[in-house]
Amino acid sequence: MFSPHILKITDNFPENIKQDIDNIIHTLNYSPIWQTIEWQIMLWETGYTNKSFFVWVYEETKLISYALVEKRDIGWWQTGFFCIGGPIIEDESSTSLLSKTLQELSLQENVVFIQIEPLSPSILPDFKTDSYKDFIEKHTALIDLTQDDESILARMKPKGRYNIRVAEKSNVEVEQVSYNEENLDIFYSLLGETLERDGFAANSREYFQTFLQYLETYNLGGLFFAKREEEVIAGGIFVFYKKTALYYYGASSSDNAKRKYMASYLLQWRALEEAKKRGCEIFDFLGISSPDESNSHLAGVTDFKLKLTNETKQWPESQILVLKKYMYILLKMKKVVKIWRNTISRL
Fold first, then answer.
1. Is residue 84 domain-shared with residue 41, that is, in the same domain?
2. Is the CB of residue 226 less than 8 Å from the CB of residue 174?
3. pLDDT tens digit string along 155-191?
4. Residue 35's closest CA among 234, 283, 43?
5. Same structural domain for residues 20 and 129?
């Protein structure tokens, strides 16, 4: 018999349930770190979520499906539920009960909608394909780490292999560094140059501080620097969780005299080597532009990532269940107007 449960996530979350989550994620080919208790606590500490909930279904004593949902502000004093990288479904017959339980929680918390970004094609009953805000890019580039180094290099573009060699011959050195204020300052300064160059937005310095502390606490990766003559000219934050390595954030100097050393390419290669040492089987570059999208904001990073692999993947579309339809329509219209104004301001 199936039994559904809801539990708010706190610092003293039951260890036996953490172990059940760990056991089910261990069976997956792709390990979604976003669907772990520790990740949700990290988000709460950074202020990116109001609170998070663990919604799950057991069959007797076995966890067979669950969703970790984040309650986030969406404007106009409204909130929404977001389930990133989930739900995790081991038994398809439990989806109706999981959906019903999510809806009950959503009514209790008075949210506008529940949005899920699944990594498998399962569709929860009553949900429809749509999204308010996606957190996972639907197209990504991957490297199969079960291959030997020669096979991985062979699947790169010639320019990718060449740029790695350029960095090596230029005496670029890569190392993982411990979190401290000085290293965070170096990375955040490089990130500022990158954002100005590529036109992206950034999380706060406080977010990166909490994020890096979290990675070190649980030995899940952290900050890597690429140096030449003791000067840091590129940096990256990498996450290693079970079978999956994630290239989460990257930053590099905008000085062309330093960019010619191709440090970012060797940075990726060394992180890939570390991922293999840790037993990861997939290296995910975490987002590229859609093949049919022109003038994408991801065009530059996509060109960089696809020099290092020819393997791409498309994740399933997001799904949503709207509980306050009129408010949802108004919020979507607000987003459209904001995008239109930003576009006009850049003309």
1. yes
2. yes
3. 999 999 999 999 999 999 999 999 999 999 999 999 9
4. 43
5. yes
